[in-house]
Amino acid sequence: MARYTGPKARVSRRLGTNVFGTKGEEKALERRPYPPGEHGRTRRRGNVSEYLLQLQEKQKARFTYGLSEKQFRRLYEEAARRPGVTGENMLRYLELRLDNIVYRAGWASTRPQARQFVGHGHVSVNGKRVDIPSYRVRKGDVITLRDKARQMVVVQWNRDVLDRTPPGWLETGDEGLAITIRELPSREQIDVPVREQLIVELYSK
Predict the structure, then answer these.
(1) Which of 110, 177, 179 is nearest to 148 (CA)?
(2) 60 and 193 in contact (C-beta within 8 Å)?
(3) How far apart are CA 144 and CA 118, in angstroms?
(4) In 3D, which of 144, 139, 143, 136 has the Cα closest to residue 185?
(5) pLDDT at 1
(6) What pTM was computed for the model?
(7) pLDDT tens digits along 79-103
(8) Quick count: other Cβ atoms within 10 Å of Cβ 78?
(9) I want to staple 9 with a disulfide (CB 3.0 to 4.6 A). Which of 2, 28, 83, 108 is the partner?
C-alpha cells in the first residue's frame, strides 16, 4: 500500500489535530497553531466551505488510521452496505483493524509503529501469526505478542512508559501481553475526534 511518508507535522497543522500521535506534532501545533504555508497565519477561518469541512474530516480519519484513499473508500462502501448507522459502522471497522488493536493495547506508541509490528510478524491472532495490518478482528478473538516481540526493548518501554489503558471493549490478559475482543466497540467508546457524519455526507454526493 502507498502509505503516507511525508511531513507528519504539516498534515496535523493543516487539519488542526495531532493526527499521527507523535510528540513532534504536539510541539508543532503548540508553536504554530495555524495551517502551514506562506499564508497559513493570515488565512481566513470564517468562510470555510461545507465541502472543505467534509474533506478535512475524511482526511483526519484516513491519516489517523493509516489508510490509502482507495482503502478508505472501499471501507466506507462496505459500511454503507451493512445494517446500522453508516458512520458508526465505518469507525467500528477502523477500530477493529489489527494494527489499531496493537496500538490500543499499549504495545506500540503510535499506529504507524503498530503497523510495523504487525507487518514484521510480531503479532498472533488466536495462536496464528498474522502480518496484515488491515486484518479485521472479531468478537472473541485473542491477540497476543509473539515470544520474540515480548523481549523487544521498544515494546517493554511502551508498556512501562505509556501505561495506556485499553478501552472497555478490550479485555487484557497474560499480564498485559494478550488482548481479547470482549465486544464490538460502540461510538461512545471510540475517542477519535472525527465527525463521521461529515464523511458520510461527502461520499453520499
Answers:
(1) 177
(2) yes
(3) 11
(4) 139
(5) 43
(6) 0.81
(7) 999 999 999 999 999 999 999 999 9
(8) 14
(9) 28
pLDDT in tens, 120-161: 999 999 999 999 999 999 999 999 999 999 999 999 999 999
C-alpha cell at 82: 451493512
- What is 61-113 written as a DSSP string? HHHHHT--HHHHHHHHHHHHHSSS-HHHHHHHHHHTBHHHHHHHTTSSSSHHH
The cell numbers describing 167, all together, are 478501552
Burial of 150 (0-12, 13-18, 19+ CB in 10 A): middle
What's the Cα-to-Cα distance from 73 to each of 3, 62, 112, 200, rounded to whole Å?
15, 10, 20, 11
Is-contact 194 91, C-beta < 8 A?
A: yes
- Percent residues over pLDDT 90 in the chain: 65
